[in-house]
Design a protein that fits this description.
about 350 residues; alpha+beta; seven-stranded antiparallel β-sheet; four-stranded antiparallel β-sheet
């Protein structure tokens, strides 16, 4: 299957992925737009043409109120809470990525006002805001760059990992998901992956990062026949089913149908670490992290290591042995306390019987 297909009106394929799960339940916009949502080049919104663009000046095209339904989970089911008023803001231009294809939406601001979520419906990019914007006003749209770059690293890292897994283990990707805490990719290997296979995938993925492969955006005319680019995973959609097809190419490694935001070179990924392997619906799931997330995890590990070193009064190389000894001692103490408690109860019972 072609991986990473998105739901943009002119940039998508027939093999769509399960969308990133969100907490907001948003109803459709009531009013119909009479003018374009945004100016575009080759049908691409700004963040698809240049993921490094952090801000843009725009005009507020529409601002419609809606009610966000907050759902509270309980053992008896779901119960609605007090509705929170929100606004759907549509702009002439935006640098904010709308959720799709496994990638969450960007966050950002419009004239300093918070944008909590971005989605696309009926060809319109909707900015979910807690405060309204004046229709016709000039505004500045600014992306939350830390979140954007994190998503760029994780998404391009997924392309690298999927390409490598398919190449060396015949394990094509069937789905993937990006969340704030982890990234996972579900593979359908011809056989069960061994620990050696997983280590080989990780090692080769990091080699591809060090290879500093250029990442390029390719746009094909979907109304005419196109030759399959080298390294394409799967096949292009049939002619005429889509106006345009957006591909992301990792030079010499991979080509994929994708609408997400990506870095310009695999060197910007820094490193990739597979955290664990799971079984998921008959597939093999790799849970991994890329770049800044790996460094953050490493920092956390080093802080905890320092604290444990202080608590155990031993070096890191002795932590496992010391903890194992403490757990065995605890088990022995618990058993001894239970024995003594039973003996004490018998003695107390005997004393009470004799005194009576």
């Amino acid at each position: 299957h072609v991986r990473g297909v998105y739901s943009f009106p002119v940039i998508f394929g027939p093999f769509g992925k399960k969308p990133f799960r969100r907490q907001l339940m948003l109803p459709p916009v009531a009013a119909q737009m009479e003018e374009p949502v945004h100016r575009s080049e080759n049908g691409l919104v700004l963040c698809q043409r240049d993921a490094y663009l952090r801000s843009v000046n725009a005009v507020v095209v529409s601002c419609e109120p809606f009610t966000e339904e907050l759902v509270k989970k309980s053992k008896k089911g779901s119960k609605g809470e007090t509705p929170a008023p929100k606004w759907h803001v549509v702009l002439s231009e935006t640098v904010l990525y709308p959720e799709g294809g496994g990638q969450p939406s960007d966050f950002g601001t419009i004239n300093g006002g918070l944008v909590e979520y971005v989605e696309q419906k009926e060809g319109k990019v909707l900015h979910v805001c807690p405060e309204p914007q004046e229709v016709g006003s000039q505004v500045q749209v600014v992306v939350d760059w830390n979140r954007r770059f994190d998503h760029m690293q994780q998404h391009t890292g997924q392309h690298v990992l999927s390409a490598v897994a398919d190449s060396i283990c015949n394990a094509p990707t069937v789905s993937w998901e990006l969340s704030s805490g982890y990234v996972n990719v579900d593979l359908a290997p011809e056989r069960d992956l061994t620990a050696e296979d997983v280590s080989a995938i990780e090692a080769q993925a990091n080699q591809e990062i060090r290879n500093m492969r250029e990442v390029r955006i390719l746009v094909l005319d979907g109304t005419i026949p196109n030759d399959n680019p080298p390294h394409l995973r799967g096949k292009l959609p049939p002619v005429g089913t889509h106006t345009q097809i957006r591909l992301v190419e990792l030079d010499g490694l991979d080509v994929n149908a994708c609408g997400g935001t990506h870095v310009r070179s695999t060197a910007e990924l820094q490193l990739l670490k597979i955290l664990r392997v799971e079984k998921a619906k008959g597939n093999t799931r790799l849970v991994f992290a890329v770049g800044g997330r790996v460094l953050d995890a490493l920092s956390g590990c080093l802080i905890r290591q320092s604290l444990i070193t202080s608590m155990l009064a031993s070096g890191p190389e002795e932590h496992v042995e010391r903890i194992d000894t403490l757990l065995k001692e605890k088990k022995s103490y618990v058993k001894r306390i239970k024995t003594l408690s039973e003996e004490l109860a018998r003695l107390q019972g005997r004393a009470i019987a004799e005194s009576g």
